[in-house]
Structure formats: C-alpha cells, structure tokens
Amino acid sequence: MTFTRRALGAALLATPAMGAAPAALAAAMKGKTEYGDFGIDLAAVDPAVAPGDDFFRHVSGAWLKTATIPPDRSSWGAGARINENTQARTRAIMESAGALGTANGRKIADYYAAWIDEPGLERRGTEPLKPELARIAAIATPADLARELALLSWAQLPNPNGSQPLPPSPLASGVAVDIKQPDRYVSGFTQGGIGLPDRDYYLVDAPANVKARQAYKAHLTRMFALVGFDDAEGRAGRVYALEERIARGHRTRVANREAEKRYNPFTRADFAARAPGVDWDAYLKAAGLDGQSVWIVNQPEATAAAAAAAADVPLADWRDYLAFRAIRNFAPIGPKAFREEDFDYNGRVLSGTPEMPAAWKTAVIQTDRALGQAVGEIYLQRHFPPASRAQITDMTRNLKLAMAKRIRALDWMTPQTKARALAKLQNLRVEVGGQQPLRDYSRLEVVASDGFGNLLRAQAFDRARQLGKLGRPVDRSEWSMNPQTINAQSNSVLIKVMFPAGYLQPPNFDPNADPAVNYGAIGRVIGHEISHQFDDQGSKFDEKGALNNWWTPQDLAKFQAAAAGLAAQYDAYEPLPGLHINGRLTLGENIGDLAGLAMAYDAYHASLGGRPAPVLGGLTGDQRFFMSFAQTHRSLQRENALRQQLLTDPHSPNEWRSAEVRNVDAWYAAFDVKPGQKMYLPPDRRVRVW
Question: Which CB contacts under 8 angstroms, 24+ apart, belong to 19-24?
C-alpha cells in the first residue's frame, strides 16, 4: 500500500519534499518488507494528529486506538512483538533440539521439557525443595548463616516475566572486570536482598507503594503456607521487617549510578572494621572468594547495614528469610499452586498482567537463561544470514564515522579533550550477532525430568564459570547476552558495543527496508549504544576502558551543563498523575537516545553519497527517518508496569523516548513544526549533547 501526501493530512501537505522525484519502489527495494512498501507501517499513522503536537501519536495513533495488550503481558508494542517472534523461534529450536544428535541439543531438550512437564511437577510436589529447606533449618551459628548468605549471593531467582530482579542476597558477590584496571578480573559486592523492586517501595509512603507492600506481605504468608510452615503470617512479618531493614541501607537508584562511587576497594581487614557482624572468613570461603586480597564493594553502606543485621537479627528470622528465598527459587518450577502464587504477585500485582503465560513461554525463558548460548548457536544458523550481519556491520562503520565527525565539529570542546574522545572512539569495537566463540556447556549436567535440580545445577555452573575467571586474562570476547536476546548493549570497560541477532528484526532492522527507515530504527540504536561510551557515566572511562577522568575541567563543566538540561527536560514529563520521569535516573539512556538519533541522522545522509534521497509514498527521506525512529517505540503499557518502570528503570517510557525529536533541528524542518505547536521548543531550549 502507498501512503500519499493527501492521506498524511495538512500537516505534511505543507512539508517541502526533500530529495529527488519518487523512484520506482521495485527498484528501490531488495525484497518484500515487513511493513508496507518500504518499511514503515503507514496504516498506523493518525493524520488527524499534527506531528508538531504529538509525534508519538501522529506516527502510531491509529495503531494505539486499536491495539490491545495480550492478557499474559504487561505491555505490547514493537519490542514485545519481536519478543513474541523470537520466543516462537526458540521454542521450535528447544522442542526439536533432541533430534540433533548433539550433547548440547540433548541438554536443551531435557532442560526445556522439565519446565513444561506439568503432571511431573504435580507428582513430585515439594520433594525437590526439601533438601534446600532442611539445610537452611539447620543453621545454628553465625558461621552457618554466613555460608548460606554466600551461597545465596550467586543465585539469580527466576522471574515469571523473565526480567532480572535485584540479587536475592543482601551480601551479593560476583566477579567482574576491574573498572580501574581493566586488564584483570576482580571480585566484589553489590546491594540486594529485598523482594520488592526497590528500596522506595518500603520507605516511601505513596498509596501505590503501600498497596504493593500489603500485597507482598500477603504473598509471603501464602508462600510459607504452601510449603506447610506453621505461623505463616508471623514468619511473613519477620521476613518483611528484615527486608525493610536491609532496604534502609540501600542507595537510591540515582545515587547508585555514579560509577566512581561504586568503586570502593576493601581488604580483609576492612570488612571487619567497616562491615562487622558477619563471619567473613566463613562467608568468603563458601563464596569461593577467600583467595583474593582485595574486593570492590559497590555500596559500603549497604554491605555494612546487611552485616549489622546478621549480628542483630535472631537466627530464627534469618532462617525464615532464607527459606522464603529457597521457596521463591523453587516456585516457578513447582506444582501449579506455587507457580500461580508466584505469578500472582510478581506478574499481576507488580506489573498488572492478568494471565499467567503459557508454560512453554516460561520454559523458553528459563532454558534460555541456563543454556542460552547453546540455543544461540542454532538460532544464528537458522535466523541470521551473513548478508544481515554484513549490512549491520556496514551501518556501524558509518555511525562511527558520523560520531567522529560530530566530535571534531564540537565548538565547546578543546582539542585536548577531542583527541582523547577520538582515541576512545577509534578503540571502540562493534560486535554483531553473538559472542564468538560461544560458551562451553560440557560441565553442566542436565537430568531429564529433574527441573528444580537442573535449575540448581545451572546456577552452580554459572557460579563456577564466574569464579574461574579470577586470575585469568580478561576475555574481551565475552557477552552477557545470548544471540537471541532482544536487547543491545554497550560495555565501557571492554570498550565495545554488542547487537545480538535476536534484536535485529523488523521494525528494528529490516534488510529489505529503505535506508532511511533502517537508519531511523537500528541506526539510532547503534548510535545509542556508541553514545553510551560518552554518556554521563560512560564518559568517565578512558580510551583503555579504565575509570579515569580524561576531560579538561572546562570541557567537563560544559558537558555536565548540557546533561543537566536534558535531565531537567525529562523531569518535567509526567506519565502518571503525580509521578514524573526521574531525569537523573534516566539521564544515561536519554543521552544515548538523543546523541544516537543525531548520529544516525548524520550517518544516513552520509550514506547517500551526495545523492538526494528519493521520495517514497509521498514521504521525504527525513520524514521516513524520524517516523521509523518513533514507530520502534510504539507501545501500550499497563499502569502498574509503568509505575514500576518510572521508579526503577533507567529507561524512560517509550512515548517519552520518542520525544527526543524535540531537540533535533532537522525534525522541525522535516515536518514544518512551528511555534505554538505542543512539542515545539525554541532553538535556545533544544538540548544538544554530542
């Protein structure tokens, strides 16, 4: 279908055509596009809404009026549609993997099958959980408690919606690249140990938070009752009180963004002096970290608070606390009553999702978490052709060149700082598809029909894999994502950006789409991830990946002033009555969006090689670019999920991510946006970062 100027309405009738006369679409396109004739869903456009009044609803208003959120999801939109497609693909892989005749294929098939074996889960009941509860019930000394906290520190509890909660242990430990010496691995600690999404749910008396607390206490009670514990309500109250105490020691999400404040080296003596209360000898030995001489503590105050609680709170309360976490770990692969209760709170209450996902969807998420790169090997073979990899690689090259040009053209940055920025950009690696080589799973034992045992073994396998890094050279090829992951990532310490194959689907990327469409969609994402190397936190890392200030004082002050302007702009947005976007919490992502969009726009024009862009379907190249950008953000979201995002997520909600166009001069020209329209900003109020 072709969308003409007339169908776009008066707002576009006034827009001058930029580029050559319309070219034959058959000549312009390489094949059938997912959306329309050249990659944009023109049926979604609402021409009654002027672009300058509400760009989000202009490009997707018709879709917003008719789309509905599936009952097993907390949101729906472009990203969710990609997720559904990828889940179907990975389900097909997992259900057929056993026929491949490979060791990994057998493990994938058995792991997946155990999660969908609902009769088997009912038949086994709570028997698989009993050894975990018995070990916790035997805690009798501070050393016993320290050992259990250490074991818990490596766990990642499975969430029914697939998202990652905070670490379940209040003394969460791990292994990572040292951000000041990026040629070595170091062990460290970070805050965790609470069941609600954030400290503010416990400490801020907003009506929605109070409601969530009450529902959480009831959930704790029901979980204890399901296992047959006596005094379930009393246990729930004591667990909640301990979590609230732990939460009081946590940093806020905004304070925790400051990279330099998360780097606090501790020696063994420092733990005793600055975080007394835990048997640190027992903890470090059980965690596999006793051979280290220094540990990086992200939040010393949270570690100290949790350690003090270990000394002050009765062991009986700690046993209940740890028992709940064992039950929570078991619930998604327990009998139906456990699965329903787990989803009722984490899905219905926190996210507002009415229906529990089908068992196969949970099985896909959990198998992906345990054996994701083995699944990814098959996914890459089936769903990521070399031509797509080459096309994305070519675009990333253009984006890096565009960023270099922007750096050189900055009128506020001194040559000294520009040289360091360009050196960092030169060292930046772009990796596409997935980690190479993929992870080795030969040491992971998977037993058919032993779902909970497989989960525990997968958690132990990952712990051993992480501990195995200590003392070895840094593996710069490693990804924290699988090839089929729906995400993209920037790593400032390894100085690289990564784009998994799963993310590279329409509308994010369509190999047959018009270049303007792809640059507005995946080009903006590539620019976003490159920009993370230069956002308010990424800019603190130098060209070697070390946390090290490479800015002159005057340049840094100017950069921070621009960033503050963007934070203030987002502080003013109010997605829910009385609940604004937190401009400081979302600052890094908002810088990435704004700089990435500007960079992608430049790269698109450079890709034209001096030739004018064709007009397709009555739309100029610039119009297609910005419309594509906005359509990748189209979405609907349940109120509870939106509330949780505003309180905890460093990403702004999608509608307000698309509002970045207000800061880009070319958008005003493309859609003839004038003073008096709702989205109009005078030139001197448009934020420019990079």
Answer: 19/612, 19/613, 19/614, 19/615, 19/620, 19/621, 20/611, 20/612, 20/613, 20/614, 20/615, 21/614, 21/615, 22/614, 22/615, 22/616, 23/614, 23/616
Cβ atoms within 10 Å of 94's Cβ, excluding its own: 25
User: H-type helices in 491-552, by residue range?
Assistant: 515-518, 524-532
Lowest mean pLDDT among 35-49, 149-163, 302-316, 636-650: 149-163
C-alpha 446/C-alpha 70 separation (Å) is 33
pLDDT digits (tens, 9 = 90+) for 538-550: 999 999 999 999 9
Q: Which residues contact 358 (CB under 8 A, 6 or more apart)?
A: 72
- Among residues 322, 346, 370, the one where a domain terminates is 370
Work out the average pLDDT over 249-253: 97
Look at residue 660 and tell me if it is in a domain. yes
Contacts 24+ apart (CB under 8 A), 270-273: 271/295, 271/307
Secondary structure (3-state) at 75 = strand
The residue among 87, 633, 161, 224 whose CA lies nearest residue 354 is 161
What domain count does the chain have?
2
Query: Is 453 among the domain residues?
Result: no
User: Which value, to the nearest 10 degrees, does the dihedral of the CA atoms of residues 82, 87, 90, 92 take?
Assistant: -110
Per-residue pLDDT at 23 exceeds 90: no
Residue 305 domain flag: yes
pLDDT at residue 158, rounded to an integer: 55
Paired with 579 in beta bridges are: 576
DSSP helix, strand, coil percent of the chain (3-state; round to 5): 55, 5, 35
In a domain, 422, yes or no: yes
Check if the beta carbon of residue 354 is closer than 8 Å to that of residue 107: no
Supply 269's token pair: 């003596």
- Which has the closest alpha carbon to 62: 80, 45, 84? 45
Q: What is the pLDDT of residue 164?
A: 53
Q: Across the chain, how many H-helices and E-strands are there? A: 30, 9
pLDDT 10s digits, 381-390:
999 999 999 9
CATH assignment of the domain containing 186: 1.10.1380.10
Report the Cα 432 to chain-centroid distance in Å. 17
